[in-house]
Amino acid sequence: MRVSYKRYAPGADIPVRDVLQQRKAAKYFNRETAAAMVCLAQLLQGERLPESTPFYYAKGAVEYEDIGLPALVRASRDHSGKFSSAAFVSEGMAAISPLTQFKVLYNMPLSFIAIEHRLTGDNAVLYGSAAALLLQADHAPGDPVLLGADRVDKEGWVSVGFALLSGRELATLPRNVPGDEAVDLFRLWSEERGL
């Protein structure tokens, strides 16, 4: 099993353009997608995975991300200060960048990684649970399996991890996982390997 785990402080530079084939794609990334791209590049070190590689990604909680929502909320109020669907459509959506939609969709890290690495095999986005991620991987139709997870905490720290495992390695992993979030698996596996 190969493992990669990264953690970025709020405002820290995430050098995603250094690892992209299509550098212009970075404008669509939020911090967690950028961190995921860098972390996976660290894991693969230039290796190209077979296109049919199953890929499962657990999205952890996103407790903080500045995507301009306060401006959208302010612009979506009527003259009395209440939310107005008409104001939301006419002025609220104009208050934020059109690229924001790519930054808030749940499956964006998995989607952009699959596009960048041409992964067309079985894939799924799950919500944060380590047990769910391992269970999904247990039923993967191929070997090896690529697993990933992320989390953004309320202070703005971004944590992301990846592992590439064979079915045999997956079968030997303990199922009693400390913590609930899948990204904790990668931190733990990374620490066990002294990375």
Brief account:
With 195 residues, this protein is α/β, with parallel strands linked by helices.
How would you summarize the topology of this molecule?
Layout: E1 2-8, H1 31-44, E2 55-62, H2 69-75, H3 85-92, H4 100-104, H5 108-117, E3 123-127, H6 130-138, E4 145-152, E5 158-165, H7 167-171, H8 183-192
Parallel strand pairs: 2-3, 2-4
Antiparallel strand pairs: 1-5, 4-5
Helix pairs in contact: 1-5, 2-3
What attributes characterize this protein structure?
alpha/beta, Peroxisomal Thiolase, Chain A, domain 1, 8 helices, 5 strands, 35% helix
Described by strand count, sense and barrel closure, the largest sheet is:
5 strands, mixed
Task: Look at the structure and give the CATH class.
Answer: Alpha Beta
Q: What characteristic shape results from the CA principal axes?
A: elongated
Q: Could you state the CATH homologous superfamily?
A: Thiolase/Chalcone synthase
Number of domains: 1
**Secondary-structure element pattern, one letter each:** EHEHHHHEHEEHH
Overall pLDDT metric:
87
Q: How do the strands line up in the largest sheet?
A: 1-5-4-2-3
> Quaternary status of these chains?
single chain
- Through-space gap between termini: 13 Å
Instruction: Please identify, by name, the CATH architecture.
Output: 3-Layer(aba) Sandwich
Poorly predicted tracts of residues? none
Could you name the CATH topology? Peroxisomal Thiolase, Chain A, domain 1
Tally of DSSP β-strands: 5
Helix content: 25-40%
How much of the polypeptide forms β-strand, as a percent range?
Answer: 15-25%
